Amino acid sequence: MAWGLPSMPEKKHINYFLNYGIRHRTGPGQGYTFQEFYGDAAIPYTEQFRTSERGGLSNSFRGGMDLNLSPKDVLTGAFTYRLGDDYSDGITEFFDYNANRELMSISDGHKMKPKMKVVWNMS
Question: H or E stretch including 88?
Fold first, then answer.
């Protein structure tokens, strides 16, 4: 029995692939939360009102290779690169109440700024 490295596969056993994707999305949103805390909580009741706007434009590139080792076994290597100009703007208002449910304070949450995002991975 001879041992050694396997010979290079024939071209019919290799599959190369490239993909490009583009995505544009917008998504308004809103939400409401009421929380009640028990015990000696400094703020026993609180309400949150949220509004948001999410969206942006992103591009993705994917490339790789499939190697058919046998009719049932495939080895795949791939690379993905994603470039996006996504944003998520949101405002949250907090209404805090005392134990008698009297309004104690109102505060505004922060607004998130748009950001450029680059993502890549290999598999």
Answer: strand 74-97
Q: Which of 55, 94, 92, 62 is CA-nearest to residue 77?
A: 62
Neighbours of 45 (CB within 10 A): 19
Cα–Cα distances in Å, from 79 out to 12, 13, 28, 61? 22, 20, 32, 8
Q: For residue 123, how many C-alpha atoms fall within 13 Å in the half-sphere facing its CB?
A: 8
- Report pLDDT digits (tens) over 73-88: 899 999 999 888 888 8
Q: Which two tokens stand for residue 18?
A: 């490239």
Radius of gyration of the CA atoms of the chain, in A: 27
Question: CA-CA distance, 78 to 109, in Å (whole number)?
Answer: 41
CA distance linking residue 49 with residue 111, whole number of Å: 13
Is the pLDDT at 24 greater than 80, yes or no? yes
Reading the block at residue 121, the tokens are 């991975």
Q: Tell me how far apart the alpha carbons of residues 36 and 43 are, in angstroms, rounded to a whole number.
A: 9
CA–CA dist 83, 92 (Å, integer): 28
Q: Would you give the DSSP letter of residue 53?
A: E
